[in-house]
TrEMBL record:
Membrane topology: Multi-pass membrane protein
Descriptive protein name: DUF4870 domain-containing protein
Localization, UniProt: Membrane
UniProt xrefs under Pfam families: MamF_MmsF (PF09685)
Membrane-traversing stretches: 6-29, 41-63, 75-97
Domain of life: Bacteria
The entry's keywords: Membrane, Transmembrane, Transmembrane helix
Keyword Oxidoreductase: no
InterPro entries, per the entry: MamF_MmsF
Organism: Listeria riparia FSL S10-1204
Length: 116
């Protein structure tokens, strides 16, 4: 059980050293459904900022090409950067909290172990 708790926490804490690779590897190679569930959640919270970053890059480029105005492009770009930054901070705090919860969780805690 201790190894499972460490893998659960590692999938969340990997945000700081290998965001997509570690949860993906844990999800693929894990033997328990609980660990796979935590790896999927961590993988999702690591992928969302990357998708948001690419989407904001596309939108800023599209607005810059369609309006031909640097003022509008700058305002849209700044707004998207602030939104993506807030999302990244929220997801980083979420990953830290879930990683700590995974380390200190008791095996019989039904609130944290969502998969039976």
């Amino acid at each position: 059980m201790k190894d499972q708790k460490i893998l659960n926490a590692l999938s969340y804490f990997s945000l700081f050293f290998a965001p997509i690779l570690v949860p993906l590897a844990i999800w693929i190679f894990s033997a328990t459904e609980n660990t796979k569930h935590h790896a999927k959640v961590a993988l999702l919270t690591h992928i969302i900022p990357a998708i948001g970053g690419f989407a904001s890059l596309f939108l800023v480029s599209f607005v810059g090409i369609s309006t031909n105005s640097s003022n509008v492009t700058g305002i849209v770009g700044l707004g998207l950067m602030v939104a993506i930054g807030i999302m990244i901070v929220i997801l980083a705090v979420f990953n830290i909290v879930r990683g700590i919860q995974a380390l200190v969780a008791k095996e019989d805690n039904p609130l944290f172990n969502t998969i039976d």
